[in-house]
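JOB MANIFEST
job_type = single_chain_structure
chain_count = 1
residues = 320
[input]
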Amino acid sequence: MNRHLKRKIFILFIILAMAVLLGIFKGSVNISFDKLFLKENQPILYLRIFRILTAIIAGGGLAVSGIVLQSILRNSLAEPYLLGTSSGAGLGAVIALVIGVSRIYLPAAAFIGAMLSIILVYALARQNNKIPEQSLILAGVIVSVALSAIIVFLVSISGDEALHGLTWWLWGSFQVYDFKLLFAVTLIVVFGVLAVYIFAQDLNAISTGEEEAVHLGIDVESTKKILLLITSLITASLVCICGIIGFVGLMIPHMMRMIVGPNHKILIPTSVIAAAIFMVACDTISRTIFPPLEIPIGVITAILGAPVFIILLKRKQRAK
């Protein structure tokens, strides 16, 4: 690792530390440093720390999922939200709750939903045993919208008031209700990211072309299936604790490629840090922009991410 790169990583950590401190002090109620550890402020402090930890985990997981999907699909517009993976995971979680499954099994239900949504997207996009890039994105958006509509329908007709509260959660929220579930999801995401990092060199090869990757001795199809499973598990787990948050896996990897380059051994860890900064900042904005109201995280990321998606889409069209 060269000196210039080390400096960039150090700067990212400094910015993350600043974002975390800002997230602790700022909110619907601002707390100064000298009053932060007073007994009456302890519940707010603990809540904000857990929110920040959730934001960091969510940001890192979504960014790495975006990196994997963009590499194995060789499509710069691929990310869990746009391919319907997040909506599929959300639908799986909602169905599990509707039929009375315990919350501890939500990651499994969400994982099944995510995998089924991927299969559906591939089936819709396939044309003569090929999957054109435009068809893949179009199928992903259609599936995402359709599954989101089903989620809203199930929540609307349910007589369970707790399920009606899911509408807010499904737009993205870092309010922690189940610390055991958060711990389980954290383990899944951390080990998932580490597993993806092990495949960094394989991702480098696949990104340059599958034929070249095969010549290098990489079992491309097996690698893609394993990484797709890991990505689905990460996405599904995150949906269980913070709902559906889009565009993070699109924006952050592209931004970091411009800063540190396409080498996945560097891109993956730096994207995790950058995404953590972004999500902590989004959480702080959601709590401070219209206090005491809280804006769903997914709304903020969509407002920021939609223009990025349009720019990338136009760039791809001009490149053809």
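[summary]
The radius of gyration is 20 Å.
The chain has a mean pLDDT of 84.
exit_status = 0
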